[in-house]
Specification:
Strand content: under 5%
Order of helices and strands: HHHHHHH
Structural class: mainly alpha
Distance between the termini: 44 Å
Helix content: 55-70%
Number of domains: 1
Radius of gyration: 33 Å
Shape: elongated
Number of helices: 7
Mean pLDDT: 81
Length: 198
């Protein structure tokens, strides 16, 4: 590169073109200057290509399709939980209670699967700057929801306490509040990625 610059300087490629005189004493148009075609050094790094494996795509597909079950599960769990909350503990049918527990297990399974696939893909895409902030916000919202769902399960009144009539109403209210807060946080992360198609 340096020898090319010296060669161009020696050949006069960067010299100013001077007007020449033609017959009659009028100056002719100056010749077009020769410009060196060397790109300036901007000091910026070239963007690095990010490679994603086929397994990344498989995990992403599983993550997306599994997440479509989020809203139906949340609606069902909210309806069942509201029914349990508004009915006296000794009047609740065992089928509603069993359905509430089954849907809660479905939510736990869904969030377990999506935490593994999403976390693995988040790690795999850690060097990709495109959409990084969006991915991290989504992951943070979902991890907060995961923790909330674990707390919701821990705060659930036991069947023994219900039968004995010793349910603490504050614990029952806290169970409901944490469940709704966790679902709301998860829905915020879900809708965010749904609109951004990522």
């Amino acid at each position: 590169m340096q020898s090319l610059v010296w060669l161009m300087a020696a050949s006069g490629a960067w010299q100013q073109a001077t007007p020449t005189r033609v017959a009659g004493g009028l100056p002719s148009a100056p010749a077009a200057p020769i410009v060196a075609l060397v790109a300036p050094d901007t000091g910026q790094r070239r963007p690095r290509a990010i490679e994603y494996s086929n397994f990344y795509t498989v995990r992403l597909t599983i993550h997306r399709y599994a997440s479509y079950a989020t809203i139906p599960l949340f609606i069902a769990e909210y309806a069942l939980g509201r029914s349990l909350y508004n009915t006296a503990p000794d009047s609740v049918s065992s089928s509603v209670r069993s359905a509430h527990g089954a849907v809660a297990l479905g939510i736990a399974g869904l969030f377990g699967l999506n935490t593994v696939t999403g976390g693995w893909n988040l790690w795999h895409a850690r060097k990709d700057p495109a959409g990084r902030a969006r991915r991290y916000v989504h992951a943070a919202l979902m991890l907060v929801s995961d923790a909330g769902f674990v707390a919701t399960g821990a705060l659930a009144p036991s069947r023994r306490a219900e039968l004995a009539g010793t349910i603490d109403p504050n614990r029952r209210n806290l169970h409901r509040t944490v469940a709704i807060a966790s679902m709301s946080t998860a829905l915020a992360g879900y809708v965010m990625m749904l609109f951004w198609k990522s």
